[in-house]
Design brief:
6-stranded mixed beta sheet; Urease, subunit C, domain 1; about 30% helix; about 525 residues; single chain; Diaminopimelate Epimerase, Chain A, domain 1; 24 strands; 8-stranded parallel beta sheet
Length: about 525
């Protein structure tokens, strides 16, 4: 035996044998699962033995919706996360600018006007007053809006005369002048003129982000929406066996240029494969870009945006499915979800088969569309921490009736809809334990609200873990090999420092070991020595 793990609670997620005390690994695969005494007797002189001392082991956690490369980009940017006002945010950015070469683009991420007094979008004026010697681009926490200063607007040639692009909005003042905030597809106006990252920079970002992920217990990620240039770097790292975790990637799809999908996905290379394509139906609730059937309660003249018009989205899904790509579509508003289901049902009729079509976020769904989710065999790819982040203002946005169909994980499971869980990092924190906590409590870190926010949608602890293991594996078509601990399967394990419980202790729980194919890629006990 190469590795033995014993003396704890092993949640296998295998319905036939849900609990065990110990397991043994030979090479890349699980060789035995059973009680501690039996497994201990298998140890040889060179076997590494990990004594759990009562702690829990689960199958390796899989984040079913995240941006690993984006996490690396975030690490290179100025963090303006969780700041309490526009003025405080500008102060942080100005301090960062003072330590950067003049003229160099300054990028940041994390602002959220919902945290600020008045909850109003910021403006270029406050940035220009402090930073006028370089372009500044600050992405909103959800990535669906950007806040620019004057030099950035000038670099992008955005003026009063610039029309709103399809699926985007240039926020303007009463005189029609751009205020500096761009929403959804309008952000592409500035992204098109920003200096591109080199392959070396992309590699540095991927390596740094991967280390953060494995330290959080993640053995695999669904990398949502990357360029071919980033995929090329992943392939390089995978070919050299330098990816410490599995990366199941989705190409950033362009509904206006579908010729890229005419070539079928390439085979996997070691721990990397790009078999899917991601599109956007709409924007986000936080920036009121999520497309709704009826107007926003707190913005009665606004129903959100079509980032991709429904007819164009259907054509994109048809092209992708016809050429063997798995499709994942960002849909947050109820109308956005409805348009995705229209496209999926049409594709299912035209191409019967097991396509694993995914609705990313599925944040607000109209009651009649739940049955259509079932009919489309669609997967609900949801992020539990979105609910606990959004709950201070979500009902204000969409009202008491629609909120009942929002962040509805329990509804999905009860209707037999496959549920895969993720974090959407760097929008949210990397740690899956925070998502598991949100799923089982529907509370914030302080335990609010008492009893949980719309508690009927809570999951059990096993259901929450399943969403990050068996559910995520199913969502990438890997349920026969991953997501469950069973003899003969790859030894992907997440080992914690204590027994897991469906309560606040999840927030105090740490990951002690992350193991991918029998390889200990993270060892907290060694780091803390």
């Amino acid at each position: 035996m190469d590795l033995i793990v014993l003396g704890g609670e092993i949640r296998t997620m295998d319905p036939a044998h849900p609990r065990a005390e110990a397991l043994a690994v030979i090479g890349k695969k699980i060789a035995a699962i059973g009680d501690t005494a039996t497994i201990r007797a298998m140890a040889g002189p060179s076997t590494r033995v990990i004594d759990l001392h009562g702690a829990t082991v689960t199958p390796g956690l899989i984040d079913a919706h995240c941006h690993l490369y984006g996490l690396g980009v975030d690490g290179d940017s100025v963090s303006v996360r969780a700041l309490a006002s526009e003025a405080e945010t500008v102060g942080v950015v100005a301090a960062a600018a003072a330590n950067r070469p003049a003229g160099e683009w300054l990028l940041g991420r994390g602002w959220d006007q919902n945290r600020w007094p008045g909850q109003q979008f910021p403006t270029r004026a406050s940035l220009d007053a402090r930073i006028s010697d370089r372009p500044v681009v600050l992405r909103r926490v959800d990535g669906h809006a950007s806040w620019l200063n004057g030099p950035a607007l000038a670099a992008a040639h955005i003026t009063k005369a610039t029309p709103d692009p399809a699926g985007g909005k240039i926020v303007r003042d009463a005189a029609g002048e751009p205020t500096g905030v761009l929403i959804d597809n309008a952000t592409e106006l500035v992204e098109a003129v920003m200096p591109p990252a080199t392959a070396a920079v992309r590699e540095r970002r991927i390596r740094a982000a991967a280390q953060q992920a494995i330290a959080a217990g993640i053995t695999g990620v669904h990398e949502m929406g990357i360029e071919d240039a980033t995929a090329d770097v992943y392939v390089k790292l995978a070919t050299a066996h330098q990816l410490p975790l599995r990366v199941y990637a989705f190409l950033a799809g362009d509904p206006a240029h579908l010729e890229r999908l005419g070539t079928a996905p390439k085979p996997a290379v070691d721990r990397f494969v790009m078999r899917g394509v991601k599109f956007f139906a709409d924007g986000a609730l936080g920036s009121r870009g999520a497309r709704l059937f009826e107007p926003y309660v707190d913005d009665p003249n606004n129903r959100g945006l079509w980032v991709t018009e429904p007819a164009q989205l259907s054509a994109a899904v048809e092209a992708a499915v016809a050429h063997g790509w798995q499709v994942a579509i960002h849909a947050i508003g109820d109308a956005g979800v409805g348009s995705v289901l229209d496209a999926y049902l049409a594709a299912e009729r035209a191409h019967p088969g097991d396509h694993r079509l995914r609705v990313e976020h599925t944040q607000v769904i109209a009651p009649p569309d739940i049955a259509r989710m079932v009919a489309a065999h669609a997967i609900a790819s949801m992020q539990p921490t979105h609910a606990t982040s959004d709950m201070p203002w979500a009902e204000q946005r969409i009202g008491a009736r629609r909120i009942l169909g929002a962040y509805a994980w329990r509804t999905m499971l009860d209707q037999g809809i496959p549920l895969a869980a993720g974090s959407d990092f760097p929008v949210e924190d990397v740690a899956p334990l925070l998502g598991i906590y949100a799923a089982v409590t529907r509370q914030d870190a302080k335990g609010n609200p008492a009893g949980g926010w719309y508690p009927a949608q809570k999951l059990t602890l096993d259901e929450a873990i399943a969403a990050f293991t068996t559910g995520a594996a199913f969502a990438e078509g890997a349920e026969a090999t991953r997501g469950m601990l069973r003899v003969g399967r790859p030894a992907d394990l997440t080992i914690y420092d204590r027994a897991l419980a469906a309560d606040r202790t999840l927030l105090d729980t740490h990951v002690d070991f992350t193991i991918v194919e029998g390889d200990v890629v993270f060892d907290r006990r060694a780091v803390s020595r």
